[in-house]
Write a structure and sequence with these properties.
This protein is an alpha/beta fold. It has helices at 6-9, 37-55, 74-81, 107-118, 127-137, 148-155, 163-169, 175-193, 195-204, 210-216, 220-231; strands spanning 16-21, 24-29, 66-71, 87-90, 95-99. It has 11 helices and 5 strands, in the order αββαβαββαααααααα. The chain has a 5-stranded mixed β-sheet with strand order 1-2-3-5-4. Strand 2, helix 2 (37-55) and strand 3 (66-71) form a beta-alpha-beta unit. Helix 4 (107-118) packs across helix 5 and helix 9 (195-204) runs antiparallel to helix 10. The protein is elongated.
Length: 235
């Protein structure tokens, strides 16, 4: 991932325009239309405030400025970073990398903020459920203009999208459908049982399912059943 290092990317200083806002340093490819920059900056500052509110973080000014790399297309992003996606984040470089089509989204910033304030998730088993679920949830009604509970009800008509199956499969097949269901479940845990308990879960979860019972006084399977009952879906 050396090509993603700020020092490496900035070797070609003529390639970038630079902008700053309270929580970001933007490096925008000169191929990007300058008229797009201000709306992106405004949206991302709102995203930081939005995520901090969900996380119940009051000391938001301790957050180091995030390096925000903005590309005009997926192809341009791939040429510079060798990462074939429309957005990604690398905490070791305190950087997030977007193309212009989804540069207003909160997802990648959600990854950085959760890791900064709660630490790295110490679980491969629950990585998709927790990390992608949270990152999708913070984009609900923002990048995703729909209610996650409503969308999850439809997706859960297919049993392969059950929470327990997603955890067992632990892969990126049908990524968005799985992530929306996980996002809806994380939303349910946070709104029903409090962000403080979710933060405890994040900081202590490993491979052992018993951590859910310790924090929520309910097993993961019971929490999953409660979630389906809340959504009024048969599972």
């Amino acid at each position: 991932m050396e090509m993603n290092k700020p020092e490496y990317l900035l070797k070609d200083s003529t390639y970038w325009n630079k902008y700053e806002s309270p929580h970001f340093i933007y490096y925008s490819s000169k191929k990007v239309n300058n008229d797009l920059i201000e709306p992106i900056m405004e949206s991302q500052e709102i995203n930081v405030t939005h995520i901090a509110k969900i996380m119940n973080i009051n000391n938001i000014d301790t957050l180091p400025k995030i390096n925000f790399w903005l590309f005009n297309s997926d192809n341009e992003k791939y040429q510079k970073t060798q990462v074939n996606s429309n957005a990604h984040t690398l905490t070791e470089y305190w950087s997030t990398y977007y193309n212009i089509n989804n540069a207003t989204g909160a997802h990648e910033v959600g990854h950085l903020m959760s890791q900064y304030f709660w630490g790295y998730l110490n679980s491969k088993k629950y990585d998709f459920l927790m990390q992608e679920g949270f990152a999708f949830y913070v984009d609900e009604t923002r990048f995703f203009k729909f209610d996650f509970y409503k969308k999850a009800r439809t997706i859960l008509r297919n049993e392969k999208y059950k929470i327990s199956t997603i955890i067992k499969d632990n892969n990126n097949d049908d990524y968005e459908e799985k992530a929306i269901v996980c996002g809806a479940f994380i939303k349910y845990l946070i709104t029903s049982h409090g962000i403080e308990n979710f933060a405890k879960l994040w900081k202590s979860v490993g491979e052992d399912e018993n951590v859910f019972s310790t924090i929520y006084s309910k097993s993961l399977s019971t929490l999953e059943k409660d979630f389906y009952a809340f959504l009024d879906v048969q599972n």
